[in-house]
Amino acid sequence: MRSARRSAPQHPRQRCWHWKGEDRQGQRRSGVLLATGRPEAQRQLHQLGVIPRKLRQGGTLARFERQISPRDLTLFSRQLATLLTAGVPLLQAFHVLGESLSKPAMRLVVQALGMDVSAGASMAQALSRHPLTFDALYVNLVAAGEQSGTLDRMLERLAGHLEKRERLKARVRKALWYPSTVVAVGIAVSAILLIKVVPQFEQMFEGVGASLPPLTRLTIELSEFAQQWWLVLLGSAGVMAGAARWWVKRSARARFGAHGLALRLPVVGTILEQASVARFCRTLATAFAAGVPLVEALKTAAGACGNDVYCQAVSAVQSEVASGQRLHLAMRATRRFPTLALQMVAIGEEAGALDSMLTRVADHFEREVDDRVDTLTSLLEPLIIVVLGVVVGGLVLAMYLPIFQLGNVI
């Protein structure tokens, strides 16, 4: 597959062009197209029956590819598989998709794929020129589908794989973002009370002249600190968060450390571990079932784990398997995979049904992630409500205690 991709025909550097104009009916139209220069862009618009009024260069295709989401890729795979199953030729299918897809970035990619295929490249070769959109698994499975004459079924399998992968990511994001969002809202409400509400009570208490309860004095001191330093604290938190994100993004060592720390978190760490194992097994099963060699399939699966710790572990597994080691023994040596996964992989290797066993392991751990996320959510909801109630209620109580005492004196 790699040698085929290296021998793919080359084409001139293509650029994106934004255009506005009128069609033959006089209606205003606009869009983006792919061309090597202004004359070719004008020729394409002429073929579309558009009289261009404005035509300007809009950068490279890679800039638009960053806007493509997994959902767009799933929709493209599903629609292309449907067209191929109906007997539509590949080039005509690209043309139909180019007109039906609503996202400009995806239309540009489809247009580029059509140009490459019409120039003599295979679909896998065309896909390999867009690594920002199509990863190694996608390219390898399409190449296997082209070689076996089952491209439509392979695209359906890819669409299903992408849907399951994104569903699993959504569950993990829910486990991470739900408590974080609620806690952030609680902190924001407490800050508003300390900065805006407590000072009003403080002015009223100064006029009374009576001694204040310890809880009220503590709350007023916190309010004074928040009023004086809230901007500095907010700015420092933003700078620290931005610096940490930049460091993790730029440094592989920092990213590895952050991912390792995340795996050691209580409850959430277990969810992340199971999600990484599920993604690894699902990707490996999909690639291996499509006829991709195990060593190359492991390389693809390493990048799909979503965690650098597991990515490093799978890379070690790949090296051991390449040297002749059995898969389940190489996985056991990393001490990163649960016993159930190791046993199922060992059975799959002995029975010659590795892909089906990996699929069962992925299904099992995806269900485990779903159950744990639901349990975490159901446990966190009352806990967070209690914590927020205590914090906000404590601030309110601290402000009303002097009023209650004054009422008792009267």
UniProtKB/TrEMBL annotation:
InterPro entries: GspF/PilC, T2SS_GspF/T4SS_PilC_CS, T2SS_GspF_dom, T2SS_GspF_sf. The keyword Transmembrane applies. It holds the Pfam family T2SSF. It comes from the Bacteria. Residues 76-199, 280-402 form the Type II secretion system protein GspF domain. Keywords: Cell inner membrane, Cell membrane, Membrane, Transmembrane, Transmembrane helix, Transport. It is found in: Cell inner membrane. The keyword Protein biosynthesis does not apply. It is a multi-pass membrane protein. The chain crosses the membrane at residues 175-195, 229-248, 382-403. Belongs to the GSP F family. This is Type II secretion system protein F. It comes from Halomonas litopenaei.
